[in-house]
Structures are given as C-alpha cells and as structure tokens.
Write a structure and sequence with these properties.
Elements lengths: L1 E8 L9 E7 L9 E7 L3 H13 L3 H9 L1 H13 L2 H5 L4 E2 H8 L3 H14 L2 E3 L4 E4 L1 H4 L6 H10 L1 H6 L2 H7 L3 H6 L3 H6 L2 H25 L7 E5 L5 H9 L4 E6 L1 H10 L9 E5 L12 E5 L7 H14 L5 E9 L12 H12 L4 E2 H10 L2 E8 L4 E8 L21
Parallel strand pairs: 7-8, 7-10, 8-9, 10-11, 11-12
Antiparallel strand pairs: 1-2, 2-3, 4-6, 5-6, 11-14, 13-14
Helix pairs in contact: 3-6, 3-8, 5-6, 8-13, 13-14
InterPro entries: COMT-like, COMT_C, COMT_dimerisation, SAM-dependent_MTases_sf, WH-like_DNA-bd_sf, WH_DNA-bd_sf
GO molecular function, one term: protein dimerization activity
Protein name: SAM-dependent O-methyltransferase
C-alpha cells in the first residue's frame, strides 16, 4: 500500500484530543477497496508529517495530481446528470443505457459513457443485463432532494463564477461580482426563481444538522427562538417540530421570508411560527430567548460580522443566548492538512461571498467585540459546530448586559 494523505481534525473526539487519520492507496483488486484509512484518537503531528511526505514522494504523486486537475470533470458530470434528470429516471427501477437515453431525450452512446463514469464516481451502480440503478449518492440527486438544487447552484452560477477565481486571489474581491457585476445576495434578490433554488440548496446541509441540534439541545419550554438569516426556515421548523412548547421567528430579507411563508404550511407548528422581514445589519427582533445564526457569519468579512452580532446583542434581553452554527478551521498550524470540509469551503467563501471560515478563537474575538462571551463549542454533523454565546457584562456600545448564565444550554 502507498501513503495517500491524512490529517488531523481537532473537532472530532474532542475529549480525546481530536482524531488523526492516515490514508493508504492499494492496487485495485476485485471486491476490495482501493483506499484504506487508519484512524485513531489524539494528535500525532510528526507521524502525520512523515506519512504525508512519503506519500508526496511516492511514484503515485503525478497520478494524484492528474486526479486533482480532473476534479471539475466529476462536478460537471454530476451536474449534467441532474440537468437531464438521469437519477430521477433511474429512481423508477434498473434501466439500460438505452432506456435512460430514451427517457431523457439524449444520445444513447453518450449516455452509456456517462453512466460508466458515474459508476466510477459511485453515483450509479451497474447490475446484470447492462442495467443501472441509483446508489444512495445517486438518490440524493433526484429532483425531490435539496442536493439536486445544491448541484444546480454549484454547477451553474457558482461554477461560472469560479472561472474568475484568479481575480479573487489577486484583488480580494469576489469572483462572483467580477463575473456578474453584483454580489451574490443582490443577484439572488433580483432573480426570485434562482433565489428559491439557492434557498433549497442551503437546505441540503441544514437538514444534516437540524435534527441533531433540535434533539440534543435543550430548548426550554415557552422559549422564543429567533432564526437570523434563516433562509427558508429549515432549521427553525425542525426545532419547532421537536419542541412543541417552543415558538419561533424567521428573520431574513423580504424576498426570502415571503417565500418561506408561502412554501411551508405545517399545522403542527403553524401557530408557533412567524416570519419577519428586515436587515440584520440594522435591527433584529427583540423578543427572543435564543438567537440562531446558522452559516451566516462565514458569508461576511470581520467588520460586517461585528455589525450583525452587535445588532443581535442589542436585541438580547437578560438571560438570552446566541447560537452560532459554523465550521471551524484549526486554531493552530498542526503540520498536517485539515481533513474536514472547512478548508474547501473557505475557498468557496473567497470566490463567492467575500466572507471566510474562521477558527474558534477568531469567532471568539468577533463575539467579544460585539458584546458577547463565548461559553462553549459543541460538534455537529458534517464538520459543523455550534458556538454558544451569552451577553457579556457590557454590550458593544457600553450598555449593561446580563453577564449571568442563562437557564438554557449552558446550565443543562
């Protein structure tokens, strides 16, 4: 076996000091995986560094580089599969390439080759009699899954913007604005159909953390939860479903909040759900016990983050809490690459939003500047974390704050 990378994630197995992983590549043999991983609790920077060096020096390095350079081919192939409805067709049952071509109105020979590549990517599987079916990954690409919307965004506007990524690196301004002439939130505000696709695409990741957060965190009975920049309300609705004595306010820009109300009518929480339109840089609803900022701050630069947090701080009454859901970069250079999704997402922020991913200490600094105190960080699925903060003794403008533990998350 040949060393094939590895890394250290400080946000997994936190009590054991994080988790290290070593990857190995093996010759392809029938019925055996081509890649193995060895994981263990703890941090071993010297071992990781030596393992990674030996992998880079191995004869397979050129092949690995070619694989990296060809990465956009995979993204485009998956995007096209969504565009032509390939996985929707396969959802009806195993089909031949000819069947798929006929039902998608595509060239049979081209579809046959695409299916072969998608098999290589793990999107579909080949069965007997030259038939294909969806894998669990392929099922995520059906039209009824928000991952299909995510694929459309990443293969559409975002993909086209990435062509201008060099401009973002050279100037510090987004590739999206260089491509389209406006920043991406303004772009979506002017295009309601695209905005709905974007909101549904964000639901793909939110779904993966919403149930975990709503089940494992104690939302007190009678609490009012305010979801700031909550998009179509996926996270807030999950909390309300799991906590029948909790009420919620969805707060976002007008075109977003209107769509959220129109698309989601559920009798189980309708009387406890309301939507308010506004600007989170200026003012947020002041009646909340728990405020949520889920994947909002990573969209903005430090100055704008402090403005958003300061608006939240002004709204917080005595005993209120703020929950910030974000991915975290490692706080210190470990000598090994970050194996989480955070580093790639940081590049997406550079290219598209003008924001960035941050470390725990960097978020702590922003919270302090806005008048909060970071109390704890808890892990969530897909490398997400919830940062629990409370008002500090004085707010960002010197106004007094509660400065005392609230009866919610930290006290339980």
């Amino acid at each position: 076996m040949v060393p094939d990378g590895g890394g250290y994630n400080p946000h997994q197995d936190v009590e054991s000091g994080g988790r290290s992983v070593l990857y190995f590549r093996a010759p392809v043999r029938e019925g055996l995986p081509a890649r193995f991983e060895l994981t263990c609790a703890g941090h071993y920077p010297d071992v990781l560094a030596a393992h990674i060096r030996s992998g880079a020096e191995a004869p397979g390095a050129p092949t690995k580089l070619l694989s990296i350079l060809a990465g956009h081919w995979a993204a485009r192939a998956v995007h096209v599969a969504v565009e032509i409805g390939l996985c929707d067709v396969l959802g009806q049952g195993p089909l031949t390439a000819g069947d798929v071509a006929q039902q998608t109105d595509c060239d049979p020979a081209a579809v046959d080759r695409l299916l072969r590549y998608l098999t290589h990517l793990g999107v579909v599987r080949r069965l007997g009699e030259n038939k294909y079916s969806n894998t669990p990954l392929g099922a995520l690409l059906r039209a009824d899954s928000p991952f299909s919307d995510l694929t459309r965004m990443y293969g559409g506007e975002f993909y086209d913007a990435w062509r201008e990524f060099a401009s973002a690196v050279r100037t510090g301004h987004t590739a999206f604005s260089h491509k389209y002439g406006v920043e991406h939130f303004d772009y979506f505000a002017e295009r309601p159909t695209t905005a709905r696709t974007f909101d549904r695409s964000m639901q793909a990741v939110t779904n993966l953390v919403a149930d975990e957060l709503s089940r494992t965190f104690p939302f007190p009975a009678g609490a009012m939860v305010v979801d700031i920049g909550g998009g179509n309300g996926t996270l807030l609705r999950a909390i309300l479903r799991e906590n029948p004595e909790v009420s919620g306010i969805l707060f976002d820009r007008e075109h977003v909040s209107c769509n959220a109300v129109a698309e989601h009518e559920d009798a189980s929480y309708r009387s406890r759900f309301s939507s308010v339109a506004g600007d989170f840089f200026a003012e947020v609803p002041g009646s909340g016990d728990i405020y949520l900022l889920s994947r909002v701050l990573h969209d903005w630069n430090d100055e704008d983050c402090v403005r958003i947090l300061a608006a939240c701080r002004r709204a917080c009454g005595a005993g209120a809490e703020l929950l910030v859901l974000e991915r975290l970069l490692p706080d210190a250079e470990t000598g090994a690459p970050d194996i989480s999704l955070t580093a790639p997402w940081d590049m997406q922020m550079l290219a598209i939003t003008g924001g960035r991913e941050r470390t725990r200490s960097e978020y702590g600094t922003l919270l302090t500047k806005a008048g909060f105190r970071l109390d704890e960080v808890r892990p969530l699925p897909v490398d997400m974390n919830v940062l629990v903060a409370v008002p500090a003794a004085a707010g960002p403008d010197g106004q007094p704050g509660s400065g005392v533990p609230s009866p919610g998350f930290r006290a339980r």
